[in-house]
Amino acid sequence: MPIKELQYLKNDPLEHNGTPSQSSSNINKASKKAYIESYGCQMNFSDSEVVASILIKDGYTITDKLDQASLVLVNTCSIRDKAEQTVRKRLEYFNSKKKEHSSMTVGVLGCMAERLKHKFLEEEKIVDLVVGPDAYKDIPNLLKEVANEKEAVNVLLSKDETYGDVSPVRLNSNGVSAFVSITRGCDNMCTFCVVPFTRGRERSRDPKSILTEIKELVSKDYKEITLLGQNVDSYLWYGGGLKKDFNKATELQQKTALRFENLLSLVAKMHPKVRIRFSTSNPQDMSLAVLKVMAKYENICNYIHLPVQSGSNSILKKMNRQHTREEYFQLIDNIRKIIPDCGISHDMIAGFPTETDQDHQDTLELMEYVKYDFGFMFAYSERPGTLAARKIENDIPETIKKKRLSEIIQKQQNHSRFRTEKFVGKTVCVLIEKTSKRSEDYWSGRTTQNTVAVFHKKNYQIGDFVDVKITSCTSATLIGDAVQLSNHI
Ligand code: SAH
Ligand code: F3S
Predict the structure, then answer these.
(1) Are the C-beta atoms of residues 68 and 33 closer than 8 Å to each other?
(2) 20 to 30 A from 81, CA-CA: which of 67, 148, 214, 266?
(3) What is the CA radius of gyration of the chain?
(4) Residues 172, 175, 177, 179: is their CA dihedral positive or negative?
């Protein structure tokens, strides 16, 4: 596999590429049609569904054809420099389209909008509209400003906006799995990360609106719900959702607060025929209580995405991660004890400033201990404004970063194969999601551990839970034969 800055060994639950469109025709000036392209984490894709809902209320229809759109919105990602470069290239392309069709409005949403703010209007002349992640309800007003040729920027971050009252319109949905945001923002301030600056303070969403959204999805026959947040495990609702104000809540509010394990068991109990997943878990927040709830309910998938970033205590400290390598091992041991067949994946950063060869060896050794099912691996990318950028010199040469990254990726590939091979000969329950990319005759779905499985379609349908006997595998995919509709989930 070629080595890139980031490497996906599986269908990434958190990151996707946008969907490029090409050909051209006349834009229908009279119609209000919006085209939305999303980059970055799953939260961005989920936010685009909120934006679609707001636009539809404002009289728009959503189109997947760029050439028919009067409004083009790009929901952007700032996590690494490369993500921003991808968006910039895309904006250049939209610029050329706009020259052909002067009535086209182009807007930037998401983390790049928040990070670069007015610079977009000044530098990137093509952009008419700049909207940060907490200001999407203002889009209809901002569009009026654009029509009046005024500057249309809203990058205000909010302490309470969770879009809990907006019912998202599912975009590009397979009708089987859906994402439901339960927290927004992040208070953790990892020194490498731009998210706390672009997405603001951490707040949890009112459980009532979460449960209503899930109920609606289940009534539409969705079979898998993923609860989404930067740190889902720190979900906390005490009548308000702003994490940093929890200490100011009354004693009663604190005592009766709803935590992640409570929300998780509520959802699992209410919908026993629906698979429940969640992402992302921060090791510092993941509790034994959550693991016990996972073990108790069959419909909560046995899979945890547990980013670690580094295996070295000194680097973890410099990253401002709130746990040691030993505490992480303890958590892994607890997971294996409480949920023996749990799939575990990770995020890893190679070449954080000051990282020595020994630090890197510590990372490889940590991976050896856990033997992750899969992972998302990145070379450190300095982000302007972060503590690391301000205080620590980005001193690891790119060649060394790449070398270390390729060693990490190679190790992960071996471990992924080790994990998938363990399934060969076993029968596993798979939720069918779509036609396999390999062949029209094959379905593709995932096991509870989030491992992709493909098998001959026979008479099964999208949305079926099927027992599949695994006959062979690659490092990323199980290949098998469907046996029967499953009694499991
Ligand atoms: N808690 C978040 C993390 C978002 S960022 C979540 O929902 O997953 C996703 C991953 O990108 C991080 O875990 C980290 O591994 C990587 N990342 C973040 N900032 C980075 C940077 N400056 N350089 C390289 N990788 C980075
Ligand atoms: Fe970023 Fe760390 Fe939060 S990786 S999203 S600051 S937990």
Answers:
(1) yes
(2) 67
(3) 23
(4) positive
Evaluate: CB of 378 within 6 angstroms of ligand 1: yes
Count of residues in the chain:
489
Whole-angstrom distance, CA of residue 34 vs CA of residue 31: 9
Break the chain down into helix, strand, coil percent, rounded to 5.
35, 25, 40
Strands 224-228 and 177-181: parallel
DSSP 449-478: T--EEEEE-TT--TT-EEEEEEEEE-SSEE
Nearest 5 degrees, angle CA 220-CA 221-CA 223? 135
pLDDT digits (tens, 9 = 90+) for 365-389: 999 999 999 999 999 999 999 999 9
Q: Which residue in the block uniquely carries the two structure tokens 């959802």? A: 267
Three-state secondary-structure class, residue 113: helix
| pLDDT at site 124 | 56
Written as one string, the DSSP assignment of 185-208 is ------TT--HHHHH-S-EEPPHH
**310 Cβ inside 6 Å of ligand 2:** no
Contact 231, 279 (CB under 8 A): no
Provide φ and ψ at 15, rounded to 5°: -130, 140
The residue among 473, 462, 400, 401 whose CA lies nearest residue 430 is 462
Q: Which two tokens stand for residue 216?
A: 């609606």
Helices 325-338 and 288-296: crossing angle in degrees, nearest 10, is 20
Which amino acid type is present at position 134?
D
Query: What is the Å distance from ligand 1's center to 307 Cα?
Result: 8
Q: What is the pLDDT of residue 99?
A: 82
From the CA of 295, how far away is ligand 2's center (Å)? 27
**Which portions of the chain are predicted below pLDDT 70?**
1-30, 124-125
pLDDT for 100 = 82
* Separation CA 74–CA 108 (nearest Å): 5
CA 455 vs. chain centroid, Å, equals 27
Distance CA 133, CA 116 (A): 13
Where do the domains of the chain lie, and which CATH numbers do they carry?
33-154 (3.40.50.12160), 177-421 (3.80.30.20), 427-485 (2.40.50.140)
What distance in angstroms lies between residue 451's CA and the mean position of ligand 1's atoms?
A: 22
| Amino acid type, 322 | Q
